[in-house]
């Protein structure tokens, strides 16, 4: 019987500070055992994993690397409580564990042949990065129509994956709409304004072939919904990734539910239509 | 179906015999309460016991359980690599479990043994366990199990059902596992099956008739989840609740748990502990946001889970076996029977 609580042992291979305030770091992990890597690498963009620090605890974190990137996995973690603070103090070479991949993913089969609008805010951009890298991969790009990305943070220095964002800006197979709440930087070439406002201005109008994936803090989600409705998106065309406090990540400990759905196992990805059928306890 | 007769004079001897192959668990009196515990060589299950304070689910799902371990000493091989804690899963039998508590084990099994994931600690313990039930001849005033798909003589989840007929037990053999236990105990006195079943059925009717409280659940399935969620009665129900969590800890069907790491020296354990949705910490995000920050929301969660979400998810009845423990022990008399009937008869306000 496979024990779903046992993490795969990994070693920290690299740590990069991700934002100017140093509250986010991106950790690159390499599996100690090749066969674990093989099992884990079947993940899909949108899934998460439990990062497991022996003696400290476990935390659910979205997988920021993409299934098309081989040999390692990456996670970007915001320092906030017990486990995340401990992780921020760990060093390259330290050994810990990863349990997963867990949860469902963005509906890639259904999205084939469709236009995709990605909307993210703050540090909830991790699995969206994974998704963009996946869609832009030469082997996959032709399977999707237009790709639009609206991504915002408080300031330019708070945007995650800046090098990649600016590179994507220069490409013609993806329409980037980067924005910040505000900036003193006179060289800032991109948008200024909150995500929902930029969505309303820049995101494509809905047609039957277009789907929006939304991931961000509750307040952003709350105001993005009406913006998308104005553009004609219906409940089925809005796909969201939810967060709830978790422990087991496999649907057993009972803590992450919204109604009868368990965010860890039946989610974290739901359509707005599904979410509207359950109590909104997230 | 076979029925075996056990003369009460032979009972203790049989228990002694079975201890040679099985670890036995049974109800014993400790201070003022009955609890289920592992029986020592000179201990016998108390067959007259009333309800145990907490349910025997703890035999398969302990209140606190080490699940993984590792060594944090960087000078040794395998440091920081978590491994399953080795446990004894040799044969065991639970003696004198009540039928509704056995049914509750079946409900927990739905959670821990799934197509996608299997909880190895639960599954191993479950596989190793034989359930020897004792029919309830005199149901307590809190018992409403006859309206929750179980009942004083129910057989679901049991391997043997014992019926106390004053001088003797009749033992209904329900599974091969049950037969194997009776063989080891040396209980093999056959009896006139037809007559025995008749006696049992009469006693069963009498016990069922002695249960005075019932709940109505027939409409719950067709109710709209959000209508129930938004029903006006939740504030009233929750008003006096002090969020003590007693109701979930004594409940045989509550399965929620927490996971924590504990370290002593270099030895670190990952431990799981029973948890309760009545605690605000249960859902508190690191950001301070709490999706069930108010008491009413937590009380509603407990009842909605048991009486609606579970029903919708498994289409297999409600997540309450009618043992009455929470009704009896809630310090402010919050009563699931009343809540269930309110939910079952709730009609949303059609004006808005
Ligand atoms: C599906 C999913 C994906 C996530 N992806 C990311 C990500 O990519 N980057 C990132 O920085 N954060 C992410 N989070 C949030 C992250 O899990 C929490 O910030 C983290 O658990 C806080 O842990 P802590 O020990 O530092 O905080 P403490 O407040 O000390 O929390 C104690 C424990 O409670 C649980 N917990 C507390 N808050 C949360 C929460 N918001 N969500 C889930 N469990 C919680 C954890 O088990 C945690 O160990 C994600 C959460 C979910 C559910
Ligand atoms: S036992 Fe009663 S007071 Fe305590 S948490 Fe349960 S309902 Fe509330
Ligand atoms: S909810 Fe109450 S009556 Fe029902 S099984 Fe649990 S403790 Fe027993
Ligand atoms: S985290 Fe345990 S059930 Fe979802």
Protein traits:
heterodimer, A: 282 residues, alpha/beta, Rossmann fold, seven-stranded mixed sheet, six-stranded antiparallel sheet, 29% strand, B: alpha+beta, 2 domains, eight-stranded mixed sheet, four-stranded antiparallel sheet, binds flavin-adenine dinucleotide, binds iron/sulfur cluster, binds FE2/S2 (inorganic) cluster
Describe the protein.
The complex is a heterodimer of chains A (282) and B (352). Chain A has 282 residues and is an alpha/beta fold. Chain A folds into 2 domains: 8-102, Translation factors (Elongation Factor Tu (Ef-tu), domain 3); 108-241, Nucleotide-binding domain of ferredoxin-NADP reductase (FNR) module (Rossmann fold, 3-Layer(aba) Sandwich). In chain A, 22% of the residues lie in helices and 29% in strands. Chain A is built from 8 helices and 15 strands. In chain A, helix 6 (195-202) packs parallel to helix 7. Chain A starts with 7 loop residues before the first strand and ends in a 7-residue tail after the last helix. Chain B is an alpha+beta fold and 352 residues long. Chain B folds into 2 domains: 3-209, no CATH class; 220-345, no CATH class. Chain B has helices at 8-18, 99-112, 120-128, 176-185, 193-210, 225-229, 234-238, 246-250, 295-314, 325-329, 336-344; strands at 2-7, 23-30, 33-38, 64-71, 83-84, 92-97, 129-134, 160-165, 168-173, 189-190, 257-264, 267-274. In chain B, the strands form 2 sheets. In chain B, strands 3-2-6-7-8-9-1-10 form an 8-stranded mixed beta sheet, sandwiched between helices. In chain B, strands 5-4-12-11 form a 4-stranded antiparallel beta sheet, with no helix packed on it. In chain B, helix 1 (8-18) crosses helix 4 (176-185). The longest helix of chain B has 20 residues, at 295-314. The chains are: A alpha/beta (282), B alpha+beta (352). At the A-B interface, strand 6 and strand 13 of A face strand 4, strand 5, helix 3, helix 6 and strand 11 of B. Flavin-adenine dinucleotide binds at residues 48, 57-62, 76-78, 80-84, 123, 126, 243-247, 268 of chain A.
């Amino acid at each position: 019987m496979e024990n779903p609580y046992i993490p795969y042992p990994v070693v920290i291979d690299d740590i990069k500070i991700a934002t100017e305030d140093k509250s986010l770091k991106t950790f690159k992990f390499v599996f100690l055992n090749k066969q674990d890597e093989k099992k884990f690498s079947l993940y899909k963009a949108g899934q998460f994993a439990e990062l497991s620090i022996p003696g400290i605890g476990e935390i659910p974190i979205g997988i920021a690397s993409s299934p098309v990137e081989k040999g390692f996995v990456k996670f970007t973690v915001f320092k906030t409580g017990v486990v995340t603070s401990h992780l921020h103090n760990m060093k390259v070479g330290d050994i810990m564990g990863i349990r997963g991949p867990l949860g469902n993913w963005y509906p890639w089969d259904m999205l084939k042949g469709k236009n995709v609008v990605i909307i993210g805010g703050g540090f909830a951009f991790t699995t969206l990065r994974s998704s963009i890298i996946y869609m832009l991969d030469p082997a996959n790009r032709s399977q999707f129509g237009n790709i639009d990305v609206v991504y915002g943070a408080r300031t330019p220095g708070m945007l995650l994956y800046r090098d990649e964002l600016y590179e994507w800006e220069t490409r013609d197979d993806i329409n980037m709409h980067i924005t910040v709440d505000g900036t003193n930087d006179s060289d800032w070439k991109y948008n200024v304004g909150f995500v929902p406002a930029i969505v309303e201005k820049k995101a494509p109008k809905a047609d039957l072939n277009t789907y929006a994936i939304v991931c961000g803090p509750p307040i952003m989600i709350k105001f993005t919904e009406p913006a998308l409705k104005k553009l004609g998106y219906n409940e089925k065309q809005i796909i969201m990734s939810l967060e709830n406090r978790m422990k087991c990540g496999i649907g057993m400990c009972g803590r992450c539910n919204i109604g009868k759905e368990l965010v860890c196992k039946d989610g974290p990805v739901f359509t707005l239509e599904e979410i509207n059928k359950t109590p909104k306890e997230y | 179906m076979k029925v075996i007769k056990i003369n009460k004079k032979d009972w203790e001897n049989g228990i002694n015999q079975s201890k040679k192959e099985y670890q036995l668990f049974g109800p014993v009196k400790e201070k003022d309460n009955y609890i289920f515990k592992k029986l020592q060589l000179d201990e016998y299950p108390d067959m007259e016991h009333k309800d145990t304070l907490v349910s025997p689910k703890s035999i398969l799902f302990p209140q606190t359980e080490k699940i993984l371990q590792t060594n944090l000493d960087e000078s040794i091989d395998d440091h920081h690599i978590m491994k399953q804690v080795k446990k004894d899963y040799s044969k065991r039998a639970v003696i004198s479990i009540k039928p509704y508590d056995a049914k509750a084990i079946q409900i927990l099994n739905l959670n821990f043994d799934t197509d996608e994931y299997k909880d190895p600690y639960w599954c191993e313990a479950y596989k190793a366990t034989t359930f020897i039930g004792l029919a309830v001849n005199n149901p307590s005033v809190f018992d409403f199990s006859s309206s929750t798909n179980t009942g004083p003589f129910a057989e679901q989840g049991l391997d043997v059902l014992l019926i106390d007929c004053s001088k003797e037990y009749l033992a209904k053999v329900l599974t091969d596992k049950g037969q194997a236990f009776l063989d080891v105990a040396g209980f093999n006195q056959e009896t006139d099956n037809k007559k025995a079943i008749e006696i049992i059925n009469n006693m069963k009717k009498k016990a069922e008739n002695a249960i005075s409280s019932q709940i109505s659940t027939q409409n719950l399935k067709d109710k709209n989840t959000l209508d129930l969620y938004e029903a006006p009665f939740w504030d009233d129900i929750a008003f006096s609740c002090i969020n003590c969590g007693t109701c979930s800890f004594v409940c045989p069907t509550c399965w929620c748990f927490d996971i924590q790491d504990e370290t002593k020296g270099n030895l670190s354990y990952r431990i799981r502990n029973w948890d309760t949705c009545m605690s605000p910490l249960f859902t508190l995000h690191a950001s301070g946001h709490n999706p069930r920050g108010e008491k009413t929301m937590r009380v509603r969660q407990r009842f909605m889970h048991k009486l609606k979400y579970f029903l919708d998810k498994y289409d297999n009845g409600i997540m309450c076996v009618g043992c009455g423990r929470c009704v009896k022990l809630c310090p402010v008399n919050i009563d699931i029977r009343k809540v269930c009937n309110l939910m079952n008869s709730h009609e949303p306000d059609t004006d808005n």
